[in-house]
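Shipment paperwork, digital attachment
Item: protein structure file
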Amino acid sequence: MSEQIANVKVEDKEYISISAATGISVGTGMYIQNRGFKTLTMIESATQPEFADDRGVTLTALSGDYAAVSVGAGSLDIWVKCNDGRTKIHVEGV
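Attachment content:
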């Protein structure tokens, strides 16, 4: 059974932990969808990345082709930041 979480606000101030923001345990498989009109950077890491760290995956705005990603079970914590302003993401534990 999947665990659906309401939209989570993401800003361009710092990386936020998906597990901390949603209560979904680290290592749980997830489906993450950008619900806004700004791009996001997503990084898998045991610790919070530095704000300038852009080595992760870019999720396009909702209207783009790459607005969603599936994260496999057993991953490290997933961290996201908005690249300009703020947006919302939908997260579902699978």
